[in-house]
Write a structure and sequence with these properties.
- The structure is a homodimer.
- Chain A is α+β, with helices and mostly antiparallel strands.
- The first copy, chain A, contains 11 helices and 17 strands.
- The first copy, chain A, has 3 domains: about 90 residues, Rossmann fold; about 60 residues, Dna Ligase, domain 1 (2-Layer Sandwich), CATH 3.30.1490; about 200 residues, 2-Layer Sandwich (D-amino Acid Aminotransferase, Chain A, domain 1), CATH 3.30.470.
- In chain A, strands 9, 10, 11, 12, 13, 14, 15, 16 and 17 form a 9-stranded antiparallel β-sheet that branches. A 4-stranded parallel β-sheet of chain A has the order 3-2-1-4, sandwiched between helices.
- The longest helix of chain A is centred in the middle third of the chain and has 18 residues.
- The model of chain A has no long low-confidence stretch (mean pLDDT about 95).
- At the A-B interface, α1, α10 and β16 of A face α1, α11 and β16 of B.
Chain lengths: ~375, ~375
Amino acid sequence: MTFPVVGMVGGGQLARMTHEAGIPLGIKFKLLSDTPQDSAAQVVSDVVIGDYRDLDTLRSFARGCDVITFDHEHVPTEHLKALEADGIPVRPGPDALVHAQDKGVMRARLDALGVPCPRHRLVSDPADVEAFANEGAGFPVILKTVRGGYDGKGVWVVRSSKEAAEPFRAGVPVLAEEKVPFTRELAANVVRSPHGQAVAYPVVESIQVDGVCDTVIAPAPGLSADLAAHAQEMALRIAAELGVVGHLAVELFEVPGPDGTPQVLVNELAMRPHNSGHWTQDGAITSQFANHVRAVLDLPLGDPRPRAPWTVMANVLGGDFPDMYSAYLHCLARDPQLKIHMYGKDVKPGRKVGHVNTYGDDLADVRERAAHAAGYLRGTITE
Amino acid sequence: MTFPVVGMVGGGQLARMTHEAGIPLGIKFKLLSDTPQDSAAQVVSDVVIGDYRDLDTLRSFARGCDVITFDHEHVPTEHLKALEADGIPVRPGPDALVHAQDKGVMRARLDALGVPCPRHRLVSDPADVEAFANEGAGFPVILKTVRGGYDGKGVWVVRSSKEAAEPFRAGVPVLAEEKVPFTRELAANVVRSPHGQAVAYPVVESIQVDGVCDTVIAPAPGLSADLAAHAQEMALRIAAELGVVGHLAVELFEVPGPDGTPQVLVNELAMRPHNSGHWTQDGAITSQFANHVRAVLDLPLGDPRPRAPWTVMANVLGGDFPDMYSAYLHCLARDPQLKIHMYGKDVKPGRKVGHVNTYGDDLADVRERAAHAAGYLRGTITE
């Protein structure tokens, strides 16, 4: 059968789970991975080991692929344009992806679209930071390298311009943003296909600990139907205006509006399957991974609706013990309904090595089960 | 991490879907496949191409595996005993598996356990068949080679001893069985682990067309709670008595009892993930494939309960058109809730190349959606 080949750049857990989702769809999956030990490389048949920063490697990898997509946003924009010029569909395309690669480009575009964002400005030195704070944002100020940050890396919170020297040392552009007094973080996740079909997942609450996603609750508890619909519409509009193909995660801050009614501001964009969508594997009719594959191939998209009243995802981070296997046995025995997703990665303290999903009718119970399993696997809960 | 390695013998769709289910569990999967084009070999990283009938090949494959399990029942019993003697756990073990390999052994054991079966007798020639019919079974008589049959192959329905010559031509043992006037076929599927934990899936109705499974309905409509519990208990008892490890499918005939109350007779046993359990991928909390992996590794088993009131599985058979891709696009577009499972196999008329699962509250709707998709993919429905 003439089923197509998806080439995915990057061998992390997102590629691992995309391959898993592609198996029942019958699509063929080809992986470009840094090493044979990478999370996805362990489970994919057709793996090329190579450096995604090398154009010749990318070109060689792309031969025989019907479309190229990504596990991460780090492929240089000019390489993606070169692949497109070669006639290889790149999805999301470089003109869309740049908004997830470069926070300065992203902010400028969202401003132009009238999408509410935190106050922000590109800054060149600590004096710029001081000026930004004095013109309304106030301290503390968040400083972010415009490219390459993730999970709290490349991000600084400075309480004065005296603390602001370090971000400028690397000589890369820095974006200053106000520290928004948010009540919580949300994510509006949508998937869009090349011919413009799009689906919106329920808006979720995302709870971060030390700058890393800890727990996701689907749907976001207590979110008004109006604000949920507004956030979904905003995410769909961003996807359409930016020409996104595939999964788009719009990370949001929920803040009190002028009259006390909650509003949302856009924090970050990610154009790939995203940690805030892992709950969909067990909690939605169609997972974000399956819909990402369907979108980049321009297949009809699957139903994004939830299968249970509540689904909770908790990330499993590495703890002090390199071997999680006995904790894993305990968790499977304690909760026969637990859905566990291990990434095959070596355990290092604080590293994401898996996640668990739980679902059910009672949010307190669903949260407790997810938190217990994640804590037990990490070693922070021992009973 | 010291997560274990499951070695699976056989590269068909059952191995493909077992690998898929093993990815989130974090287990490593190694495959022994006849060719690199086999369904599972297309999607598994660690594949050995070789002949499962060759003991040296099996021994070499088993090195580095923590357990060996199977996609089919065709590995010679003596080879399995040799692997066990080498210290490799083989699950299900040869002493259990022989009951799924040899219908004569299976019938004798079920008789000894008092499990109700169709009338049956090992026969050596057409005169034996005549005698079997005359002593109560009557014609037509079902003749089956005791080893090697599947999906209607190795099975004959004869209306007289004159028609009974062919099954004996190969010189292999033949089992005669009465043609049971069943009202429908059911399946009781259970999973058992080495230390004796076991779970029972809801009893399903299995609808065959031309000797091949066409549709499975979970749970079996109109089945009394008493008969469902009886069938589950019988399957659990067979699994325990035979020492089965992994998934056991007990195929059943539902027949009217002496007082008109439905009863069940055992038709066949299969000791591996089974077509009557494919619905569990999208319809149960834990799929048969995930629980098979968990069982052969002696991990705690997952919850087998259904996630929806009704789940229907329909097999996708090959039709006259070798390329299903445009039909596949149509089916995904028509039903965004459809769960499709393609096996990556070349289309040949009548060959199982995939299946679809549908689920929901309304059985008529769920059946229509599954039947439409399977029929459209095969080409028997064109609108």
